User: What shape does this take?
Amino acid sequence: MSDTSNIQPFIKVDQITQQFGTQKVLNGVSFEVFPGELVALIGGSGAGKSVILKHLDGLLDPLTGHIYIDGQEISNIPEKKKYPMRKKLGFMFQQGALFDSMTVFENVAFPLGEAGITDEKELEKRVMDALASVGLQGSEDKMPANISGGMIKRVAVARAIVSDPQCLLYDEPTAGLDPIVSDSVSYLIRNICINQGITTLIVTHDMSSVIHIADRIIYLKEGTIHWQGTPRDMIDSPDPMIQDFLHGVSGEDWNKLNNPKLNPDFQQNIIQDAINDRFSTQTSQPL
Ligand SMILES: Nc1ncnc2c1ncn2[C@@H]1O[C@H](COP(=O)(O)OP(=O)(O)O)[C@@H](O)[C@H]1O
Ligand SMILES: [Mg+2]
Assistant: This one.
């Protein structure tokens, strides 16, 4: 986004702190996500990414600081006042878990039932539309045990969009998927953001996905936002910590293994492919 000075952010996180027992997890986190943007929140395991998402949905309240959704504060307000604000958000949780005993249709219909929608025709139309948006027409009667990992993620995305949210929050949507399925789930997320105009915040470690689909990247470290910028800014960043995260460099000395068959640059090659896909070809436009 070029100039956001006059636009109200859809998500505004203002100096939040959180602590579990004596463990400080968030030490003053601030960031914004603007309408229609796709922002990737990255950071090491245990950095506090999932904890941040739970604050955005009002499942956790910060100890100090404030969170605004579409201009209204969702932090530290009574539970019943959170409900209308939660309706603006669709959430795909880290495990993307479905209810095993329910069909695909029933899983996707679940949030509508929770919202008190009982009209069968409306229910059916909305579930079928959501399944069509994720490319799963015809799978409504299947059970979760009988579909692939990639389809389970698609059903979880359908369940997150069925209530027509203005904003989607995804927690590690490509975790556990093979690279090809992961690529098509990334495409789906970007497609929903563009075609349905849904503001999107995605928590992920999958740097290939981040380079492909993010408008902006926010890097969380030690409970604060250490860095933020576009994928281009990240690729060009002189910050060694950012470069190591981008390229998956652990600092291990691979040469010590002294095995010519090992390719220490394998992760770098995957990322270089993603960078080439997004930025180097003349024919494809940047997202
Ligand atoms: N409900 C909780 N109670 C106690 N500790 C928690 C709770 N939720 C998260 N944590 C801790 O907070 C830290 C950040 O967790 P999390 O946000 O899940 O990390 P990640 O960045 O991998 O998503 C971890 O050390 C985790 O163990
Ligand atoms: Mg997590």
The pocket of magnesium ion (ligand 2) is lined by residues 49-50, 94, 171 (CB under 6 Å).
